[in-house]
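User: Quick one: structure for sequence A, then sequence B.

Assistant: Sequence A:
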Amino acid sequence: MKIVQAIKKPNESFVVTDSKKLEEPLVLVFGNRYMLESEHIYDEVKQLFPNGHIVFGTTSGEIIDDNVLDGCVVLTAIEFEKSSILVKRNNVADFKNDDKKLGESLIAEFPKENLKHLFVISEGSTVNGSALIEGLENLKDATFGLSGGLCGDDDRFERTLASYNENPKEGEIIAIGFYGDTLEITSSNYGGWTTFGPERIITKSEGNVLYELDGKPALDLYKTYLGEKANELPKSALLYPLSVKVTEDAEPLVRTILNIDDKENTMTLAGDIPEGARVQLMMSSVDDIANGAFHAAELAMGGRIKSPELALLISCVGRKLVMDQRTEEEIEEVKSVIGDSTVISGFYSYGEMAPFSGQDSCKLHNQTMTLTLFSE
């Protein structure tokens, strides 16, 4: 595996960290939305890697090595020596907001034989991540790993962009399939948040739109808990996500509020919140989040045969808001576990995709650190 990285700062060209020549690399470009709105961004990357498979995604912060950047673009180009990749895309507008159907259509384009892993970069403004994952996993008689994340837009929640081999645009969902017997790919996630306050029952919801808790308007209740911070919604919601427990025995899922509708008195979350589920507010501290990142890395390393050569990190923008000037500590915790020789890239997101530890089925998470580790 050969890897080249580069950083682009505002009003500057890409600064490449390595002079290695790559033939047909996978080029992952994660960056600030304003930077990726440039009409020249695709051409800039293509000049560096004329035969590259170039995937873009907007962020709420860029990760390279153990650094967290803001307002920049980070690029990681990977050339696999014994393995192959296949990249496909769809747009939510072509499926009338039926995200499960979009996922089914996307996975149908991938040959099943020897598919080891699917890594997804999805638009993060409107997608129902739970439905998308359900569609992507609708491939019978196939076992493959699934991880990835929803693009971010800092804490603005205005619009997110992604693309494959073209300038970034709205509504795009990109899936990268990894093939090869020599590939070892593991993924994991962990949060570090704790619940507080009373447990409530979801009495009315539709998909990822929450209407009522205990028969009362959900948004009104939520604003009551937030107090003065309610004036800063939806940004302030990142500090107080919801713990959602679908059944008594199920692992609780963390759900971040992406949008609010004051007129309808509803909240739109990043994934499904079914009626009958129990929810509680959550909160966290800097130390809890850093410890959570350490634990996520331990889970990803568990049982690996080879040391990872590449780590793709997707962490939630809510964690970044809590960590503030200490954000890099969670990346440092990950690096302390996976080792100094592992190349690190990634971004802060509006949602993370990974299975729970010990489980095969992928879930949409919020407020977690998610790792996908590669070696061949």
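Sequence B:
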Amino acid sequence: MVAIKEYRITNNCTVEEYQVAQLYAVAQASKNETGGGEGVEVRKNEPYDDDKGKGQYTYKVYHLASRLPSYISKIAPASALELHEEAWNGYPYCKTVLTNPFMGKNFKIIYETQHVGNDRGQLENALNAPPEVLKNRKVVHIDVANDKPDKYKPEEDPTKFKSTKTERGPLQGEWMKTCEPVMTCYKLVTAEFIWFGMQGLVETFIHKTVLQLFLSFHRQLFCWTDQWYGMTIQDIRDLEAQTAKELEEVSHL
């Protein structure tokens, strides 16, 4: 059975602010993860207007060799050491699909996200999922302040950060019940790994990894408030273009 979980992540910002914050944080994370021929390769970043709707399309390749045990990276084919990501950002709804060339149709992770303003994570079906999905879905609430990441960084701790530009924070106690402004990301994640004897184990590992990624990313996002606050979407597009250029240069070092 395919593993389906819906992650609900409440944030101390507006929906409009979150769009800028998310794109800013993604660009910064891409730079931090790239170097020496490894990391993130941006192949496409362009507007789309088709049967999927209207928004921004990105196609990225994540090179993973250095993140795997050396004995695996030495014997595995190059296509097994890559994750390909296609994303359709038609904000406030977004869809992302992760695949692996080596696994082909046997591996896929699908993220569907709905961003809802003035919301604290209580909508029963924000993504309008069909009954068969709801039947198998498990809901996971993420508290970006009080949930502890695997790798703790004091500079990315929302319980200690206070924004000088917005005076938001620190996020403490039952902050999700009272913070203003507020919005929630509803992320429906479907993980599929078809490999006899390993499917359940790998899909469980995928969701554990996804949980930590979402938690760490949104802790960063809040603690970087003074960096992204006040930026426009055009500022972000300019930053993305510069980041893509820098990633291309660094990847060839």
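The chain has six helices and eight strands. The domain at 3-37+93-230 is CATH 3.30.530.20 (Alpha-D-Glucose-1,6-Bisphosphate; Chain A, domain 4).

User: Thanks, that's what I needed.
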